[in-house]
């Protein structure tokens, strides 16, 4: 067989030629969105590559960062930068500024391409960025914010204008770096995950498999999941492979504009985290719109509440769970129910799992004592995965050596996901907790998430977080931290009985330690920040009752 | 990213574990077909590998041949042999015996696994096979035919019985040989195409993409295309990737049994060459059956006549053209009409093309003078392709060096398909002729196939073949060889006018040389054997009229 490397430039060339009339549609907040054909994207990607090379001096595996919303220019950067041999570094604009600066410096980005609307975030960072030589600005926004900065400032459109619309993309090693993305990292410094051309190519094929997202050129995908979030789950690459139109919300991520763009552009598919959908659902309840085109919705990032899934089913939008993480490119599982349960009551149960592993992702469960656990749907262990689009290391230890911390990679090279869950005999994953949050009590594991969900089912509880605290007898025991609703009357004894009732929680798992808090601390991406609670407990900052 | 090789053993492990309840259903001609779950196939593949290694001494990249119909045991061989590191060599049971013997000797097969029903073909060959040490027989058939042969004879079921049901599959180089298949080769010796683990893995992903066959575990695929014919178009591998059930006809390839198995097992998909479907259609006309489950039919091997496509449409079976060849694994194109023509009159035109190239297959057209031709839907040239599942050489020249004949591979490594056609701007291929059959007349190309189709549209013509013959003035001119129907009255002048009428054929392309023949000579796979006609013309064996 011919030894043809799997390169992103091949995806680009294919999409822009054979699916040249497919479109990237970017919402502008005005009546008419920006429409750019794949052929134009291909031509402009070539122009951008010429500009980066000739005007900005990008060479070798230089890192070029993007601080951008989902839009056509960001897609152009997605293809131009890796295709020319450089490395696309997508910056998460939701991170705290000091973390962003740390990440840019750690990656040694030479160029930042930024949307004008994000200059208020970028400008104050620039004095702290040690490697950035050029800033390229695209789209509306106040350029005066960049007055007096050290890096040279360029207009995206001026850079690309007049450049040749084709580029002789180099034949690279398919294992060379194509893109990178830092995990937000609730503990320690952020960690860079480097995607190769090979991993992105294979991942794109997987996304396009009928058993995964299964999109074709008959589809339009509303890509709400940010391009700075694990390559928008691989959609920009996957769509160029098959001519799927992309509908890009740019900065218009509020429920109102999302409903408007669905009604106007009639996407058939959408991908986003649950909170986005919760907002959209409320919006549609208040202001009904024709969203009938949207029949398939991929939800990842965190689990979709069953009530939300049912509400979308009623609207004719079929929700499909997927699970993954920055380190898994991200497609790790997709929850398409197996043939034998379709049409039965079990179908919904299967849809609530995180999903089934595809052929490219091998999985195993490791128990509290390091033992391998069976796939029986009951044994909970830490999930470890292996595959050609799974990270084998992090970027840049000393001397740019790859980092393989022992809590992240097993001795035989599998990724330790840090997620705890069960797997059914037919390979469906259900996550029950994060490994760092699970309570190791007397050699058994107690799921903090299970306790939290059970607590939050009580009508008086607004939010609840459960963390492990040291215990002389059991090693660790759960501490329940509860946010009560206004006017709530329940006390800890009532809540404890509620947990025990109807076997919701096994008796030995019930918390003895309880405390009321004002609100649960959250990370930059809106997840419970349990390390703050653990620290507050350790510092004696919580008023704990034992019952 | 982790450096995990793309191996067939991974497809097997995935399918037999995560899709363990999916089935290979083999027709037995009796009321109950044989049903074997993917889990059982996985266990038996491991047993077969143990038997091949421990009992038969298979090691390294030894070639193990199969002379088998489509059935569960053949699927087991498909996975066991490459997974253990050996090379699966599928033998085309339709080839003339002397060619089969040549092929087995050329590949130096050490073992042949044969269906009992094929022993009448195999037994007389054995004295001519120089490398075969073992014959393994599976399924019904008269074993006495093997009495007194030199190789040791084994029963498949006895070999696998009691062997361990797991095997520690080796971590191979993904570029190592996994399987091979010889082209039937109308000119010269047959040529071996060697598939690697990588090429088969990537091809399987492509087959499963929604834009290609797009099957999931909700499907059952009736695999009529033989497993000895380019790996049954990749279906056994692709189905194990996603849990698609396989319905295998074994030796029951006649229209009656095919209709019966469709009615009983309700496949959703089927794959076969047009002649099979023509027979099935006639059968269903005579004896209607419930074939409503079958909604998607992949047709390849040669073009599907429009009338057949329409007839299947009426039955609710959506025909989808695909094009490929042994050298392309085979998936080269799939004719899913582009979004913008769906529902319009153009849709049917697009479905009649060979289809669009997927991202993994790059294509170009080379004209009569070696020039690159545009994708304008009109310029006809020889199709050349490149990609990770496209052959880069043939097997086994002197000293097992790869063979790269200049008429098959361009200097820069692309495969010359030997097919002549046009490509639309959006990448849809229409084949018009074989390069060796096209008539090179005064620097222009005349399609022999176009002339044949136009001739065969005349009611008096049963069959017609057109071949190039030398011409002093033009280099080459077409010779029309015609088989008339019984009682036909048309003469050559009438036929010539018929061709010219309504602009069917441009005037300069009309044949001057005509002859009547009894029947068109055919190759072993039923294609017109034009070299026989050319030879008969050269030897003065045809009674040619010039008009």
How are the SSEs placed, and which strands pair?
Two copies of one chain form a homodimer.
Chain A: H1 8-18, E1 23-26, E2 34-37, H2 38-55, E3 63-67, H3 72-83, E4 87-90, H4 97-107, E5 111-115, H5 119-125, E6 134-138, E7 152-155, H6 156-160, E8 177-183, E9 191-196, H7 197-208, E10 220-223, H8 230-233, H9 235-242, E11 245-248, H10 255-265, E12 269-272, H11 274-286, E13 296-299, H12 306-314, E14 318-323, E15 333-334, H13 346-352, E16 355-356, E17 362-366, E18 372-373, E19 381-386, E20 415-423, E21 428-434, E22 439-441, E23 444-446, H14 448-456, E24 461-471, E25 475-484, H15 492-500, E26 513-516, H16 530-538, E27 545-546
Parallel strand pairs in A: 1-11, 3-4, 3-5, 4-8, 5-6, 6-7, 10-11, 10-12, 12-13, 13-14, 25-26
Antiparallel strand pairs in A: 1-2, 8-9, 14-15, 16-21, 17-18, 17-19, 19-20, 20-21, 22-23, 24-25, 26-27
Helix pairs in contact in A: 1-2, 1-3, 1-9, 2-3, 7-9, 10-11
Q: How much helix is in the residues of chain A? A: 25-40%
Helical element count of chain A?
A: 16
Q: Oligomer, anyone? A: homodimer
Radius of gyration of chain A: 24 Å
Average pLDDT over all residues of chain A: 94
Largest sheet: number of strands, sense, barrel closure of chain A = 8 strands, mixed
Distance between the termini of chain A: 69 Å
Strand content of chain A: 15-25%
In the predicted model, the low-confidence regions of chain A spanning at least 5 consecutive residues are none
């Amino acid at each position: 067989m011919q030894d043809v490397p799997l390169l992103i430039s091949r995806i680009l060339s294919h999409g822009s030629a054979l699916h040249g009339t497919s479109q990237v549609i970017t919402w502008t907040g005005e009546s008419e969105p920006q429409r750019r054909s794949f052929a134009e994207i291909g031509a402009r990607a070539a122009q951008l590559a010429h500009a980066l090379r000739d005007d900005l001096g990008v060479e070798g595996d230089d890192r070029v960062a993007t601080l951008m919303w989902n839009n056509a220019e960001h897609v152009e950067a997605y293809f131009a930068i890796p295709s020319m041999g450089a490395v696309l570094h997508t910056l998460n604009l939701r991170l705290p500024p000091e973390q962003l600066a740390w990440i840019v410096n750690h990656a040694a980005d030479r160029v930042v391409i930024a949307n004008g609307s994000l200059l208020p975030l970028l400008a104050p960072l620039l004095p702290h960025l040690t490697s950035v030589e050029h800033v390229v600005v695209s789209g509306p926004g106040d350029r005066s914010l960049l007055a007096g900065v050290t890096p040279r400032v360029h207009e995206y459109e001026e850079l690309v204008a007049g450049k040749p619309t084709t580029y002789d993309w180099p034949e690279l090693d398919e294992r060379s770096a194509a893109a990178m993305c830092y995990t937000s990292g609730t503990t320690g410094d952020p960690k860079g995950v480097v995607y190769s051309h090979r991993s992105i190519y294979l991942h794109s094929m997987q996304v396009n498999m009928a058993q995964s997202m299964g999109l074709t050129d008959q589809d339009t995908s509303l890509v709400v999941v940010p391009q700075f979030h694990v390559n928008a789950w691989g959609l920009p690459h996957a769509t160029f492979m098959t001519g799927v139109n992309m509908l890009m919300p740019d900065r218009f991520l509020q429920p109102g504009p999302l409903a408007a763009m669905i009604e106007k552009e009639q996407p058939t598919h959408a991908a986003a985290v649950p909170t986005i959908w919760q907002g959209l659902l409320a919006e549609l309840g208040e202001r009904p719109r024709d969203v009938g085109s949207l029949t398939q919705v991929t939800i990842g990032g965190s689990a979709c509440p069953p009530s939300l899934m049912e509400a979308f089913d009623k609207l004719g939008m079929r929700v499909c769970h997927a699970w993954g993480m920055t380190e898994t490119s991200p497609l790790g599982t997709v929850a398409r129910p197996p043939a034998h349960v379709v049409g039965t009551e079990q179908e919904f149960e299967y849809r609530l799992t995180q999903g089934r592993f595809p052929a490219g992702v091998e999985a195993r469960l490791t128990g509290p004592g390091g033992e391998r656990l069976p796939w029986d749907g009951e044994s909970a262990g830490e999930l470890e995965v292996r595959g050609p689009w799974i990270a084998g290391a992090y970027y840049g230890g000393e001397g740019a050596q790859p980092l393989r911390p022992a809590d992240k990679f097993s001795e035989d090279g599998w990724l330790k996901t840090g997620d705890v869950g069960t797997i059914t005999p037919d390979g469906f994953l259900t996550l029950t907790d994060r490994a760092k949050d699970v309570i190791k009590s007397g050699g058994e594991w107690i799921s903090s998430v299970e306790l939290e969900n059970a607590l939050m089912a009580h009508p008086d509880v607004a939010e609840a977080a459960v963390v492990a605290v040291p215990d002389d007898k059991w090693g660790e025991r759960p501490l329940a931290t509860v946010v009560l609703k206004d006017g709530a009357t329940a006390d800890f004894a009532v809540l404890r009985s509620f947990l025990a009732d109807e076997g919701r929680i096994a008796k030995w798992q019930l918390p003895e330690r309880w405390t009321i808090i004002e609100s649960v601390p959250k990370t930059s991406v809106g997840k419970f920040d349990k390390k703050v609670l653990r620290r507050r407990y350790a510092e004696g900052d919580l008023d704990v009752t034992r019952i």
